[in-house]
Write a structure and sequence with these properties.
Residues 39-187 form the N-acetyltransferase domain. This protein has 202 residues and is an alpha+beta fold. It has 6 helices and 9 strands, in the order αββααβββαβαβαββ.
Length: 202
């Protein structure tokens, strides 16, 4: 019980930090999609609002409103919201091919990536993120960015596999990525100030 409370406290502290930024500068080199048999991928359909809210609540906690957080956003288009479905056709993971005006016109924003815990460990986060990135390509985007948190280890592994690299935009980022390099037991080549390559090792 104490370990669980400590883990929750650490996650809350991490959520209060500046989020980690990751960049994929070449969506043209996107690797192939990996999806286990029994799962499907499709874009948003009328009536999926409740499924989206269920998935996001299971992933991030709290209550979420599709209307307020997605449909009311100027970037919203139904074809930008994607789902992985289970064998019964029920949505169980989601990601969105969003756009944020602070990034250049050719840059998509990978938004609201979530998965119900019961289906974790099957690379579905990779698959649904891949679907959203393909949507960006269809819209003419050539690069993508995303924000994430230190404790979302499976998501970070998926993003690295999709060609994203760390971007060091905050003074806390080098140390945090060094810690993640230790957790993941791998080296990173991050982007530093001015786009310079920075090697990060455990």
């Amino acid at each position: 019980m104490k370990e669980q409370q400590q883990e929750q406290q650490e996650q809350q502290e991490q959520q209060q930090q500046v989020q980690l930024l990751m960049i994929n500068d070449n969506l043209g080199e996107l690797p192939e999609r990996k999806l286990l048999e029994g799962y499907g991928i499709r874009s948003f359909r009328s009536g999926d609002e409740t499924a989206w809210e269920r998935i996001v609540a299971a992933s991030f906690g709290g209550e979420h409103s599709f209307e307020r957080e997605m449909a009311a956003d100027e970037a919203y288009k139904p074809e930008r919201v994607w789902f992985v479905t289970d064998a019964a056709g029920e949505p169980i993971a989601t990601a969105s091919a969003w756009y944020r005006p602070q990034w250049s016109e050719n840059t998509g924003y990978l938004h609201m990536v979530g998965l119900v815990p019961e289906h974790a460990g099957k690379k579905l986060g990779y698959a649904i993120s891949h679907a959203a990135l393909l949507q960006m390509i269809r819209e003419g985007r050539t690069r993508a960015v995303l924000h994430t948190d230190d404790f979302r280890i499976p998501a970070i592994k998926a993003y690295l596999g999709l060609g994203f690299v760390p971007s060091l935009t905050d003074g806390s980022h080098p140390g945090r990525w060094k810690a993640l390099a230790g957790v993941l037991d791998r080296n990173f080549t991050a982007r530093g100030a001015g786009g310079a390559a920075v090697d990060i090792r455990p």
